[in-house]
Amino acid sequence: MWYKGYLHYHTSFKYPPKFRISPDMLVNEIRKVGGRFVFCAGDHGDEIEKRGEYWGWGDDYPEYRKICLDSSTSDVILIPALEIHLRFPPAKQKKKEKSEHHVCLPGLRNLKDLGIETNSVMSYASNADHLIHSAHSRNLSITLNHPYESIFTFGGPHPLTIAALYKFDYIELFTADWPNLFPFDFDIYTKFLKDPVSATMGCVSAVDNALRPHITPTNEPGIINSTYLYITDRFTPQSLMDAWNERKSYCVHGHLYFEWINPIPSRKPIYGKKPRIEFKVVNSANKRITKVEIYNKGIKVYEDKGLNSSIYTFSWKDENIKNDSAHYIIHIEAGDDHLVTSPINYSFR
User: Fold this and answer.
1) Residues 109-117: contacts with CB within 8 Å, 24+ apart?
2) Residues near 222 by Cβ (< 8 Å), separated by ≥ 6?
3) Which has more pLDDT, 9 or 112?
4) Are 315 and 227 found together in one domain?
5) What is the Cα–Cα distance from 151 to 142, expressed in whole angstroms?
6) What is the pLDDT of residues 259-268, one digit of tens each?
7) Contacts of 51 (CB under 8 A, 6+ apart)
8) How many domains, in total, are found in the chain?
9) Taking Cα atoms as reference points, which of 128, 208, 132, 205 lies closest to residue 172?
10) Are 244 and 287 in a shared domain?
11) Among residues 135, 209, 244, 333, which is most buried (max CB within 10 A)?
12) pLDDT in tens, 86-109
C-alpha cells in the first residue's frame, strides 16, 4: 500500500505559544491533508520576523528526536530527519562567505556518531565521505536537498563535480518556494542516473517551509509537495523506514498519484525478467495528463504527449535492452503537476 508523507518539514515545536504548532497539532494537520508521515527537519528560526528560534539542530537534538517519536500515533508518524549543512571549501573565484549543500538524515540517532559538529544553533558536517560512510554503516539514507538552489543561494559547488554526492541515496526535486527550479534539479538527477555509482539514486519532493514553520499545513500557500512510500506490512515506524531505505518511493508536485504500478520502484534489482512497466495514474484535480516519459540510466527511451484524460493506464515493454542492467524512472506531467518515480531496477547478469 502507498502512504503519502511530507519531507523536509521544518517544525515550530519550541516557538512562543502564539506562533507554535505543537506536535499534536501537526499530527492533526497532517491527517487533514491526507498524510501519514512527516520527516521533521528541526525548528527553523525566523530570522526576519523573529517569531521563533532554531531548535533541535545541536545538542538539543536528542530531545527533539524524542518529541517526534513520542508524538507519533498509529496513523501519523513523525520521523526526526534533521537538516545538516554540509560544508565545502569556498570557491576562490566566487568569494562566497559559505559554500555548502544541505542534507536530511531521516532516523538519525546521534549527531556525533556521524562526525556532525554543532554550535548553539546549527549542525554542520565538513567531510562528505565520512558523513556518507558513517550514515550507511548505520542504515541511514541521505537526501541531497534543493541542489540547484544551493548553488546560487548557499554558494555550494555544482553537485555533479563532487564525487561523494554520487553516493547519496536520494535527491530532492521539488521544494515549496522553488517549483520553477524543477527542470534544473531534474537535469541534475538524470545526469546522476547516467553514472553507475548513482544509477539507483531515488528522488523525493519536499516542503522546506523554512520561511513559515508557524503556518499550518492546511494554510500552506500553494502546493504541499508530497512523497509516497510503499509498505507491504503493517504501518509502523520500522516498516516506514524500511520502505524509505529500500527506495520504494515516488514524489509529487501537485495532484498526481498512482492507483497502482508494477513493478514497485525499489533499490533492489529484478533479476532475469524482460522489463515491463505498467501503471494507472490519476490526477485528483481533474487536470489532463499531458506527458508520460520513461528514462533508462538518465536517457529518455519513451515519450507520449497525446493524452486527453486525467486518468491514464499504461503498459510498456523495453524491447531494446543492450546492456546487463536497466534503471528506469517515470516522469508524468499534468499541466504544472509532476510525478517522478525512484528507479525500477533490472539486472540481466
Assistant:
1) 109/65, 109/138, 110/62, 111/58, 111/61, 111/82, 113/138, 114/138, 116/84
2) 176, 179
3) 9
4) no
5) 19
6) 999 999 999 9
7) 12, 15, 16, 19, 214
8) 2
9) 205
10) no
11) 244
12) 999 875 544 446 899 999 999 999
